[in-house]
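Tokens for chain A. Residues wanted.
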């Protein structure tokens, strides 16, 4: 059974950076990409970024392009989301996702 555990969230000032991590336990198939989603208060959960098995293909929602970078380390069973130039509208709970499996989420708050 696959489990995903996020970490690295916190409070950061506008313009700051955070790096989220997703630890993967269990055996995952390379058929599915690893994704990051986020959910702000009162809003639906939305796609942020995704990366394929080899790391050769990444996708981002328009609002984070040029600011966020998704990466993975298959040897360590980890996926990362580097977030730079954070803005208040990035405040949300960030979730790691693989297929139908979700982590518990990590809170990111961008505020002065």
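Reply:
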């Amino acid at each position: 059974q696959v489990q995903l555990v996020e970490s690295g969230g916190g409070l950061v000032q506008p313009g700051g950076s955070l790096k989220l991590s997703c630890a993967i336990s269990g055996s995952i198939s390379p058929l599915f990409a690893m994704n990051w989603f986020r959910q702000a208060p009162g809003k639906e959960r939305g796609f942020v970024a995704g990366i394929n098995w080899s790391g050769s293909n990444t996708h981002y929602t328009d609002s984070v392009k040029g600011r966020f970078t998704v990466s993975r380390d298959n040897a360590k069973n980890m996926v990362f989301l580097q977030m730079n130039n954070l803005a208040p509208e990035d405040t949300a709970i960030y979730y790691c996702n693989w297929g139908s499996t979700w982590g518990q989420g990590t809170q990111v708050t961008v505020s002065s």
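The chain has a mean pLDDT of 95. The first strand starts at residue 3 and ends at 7.
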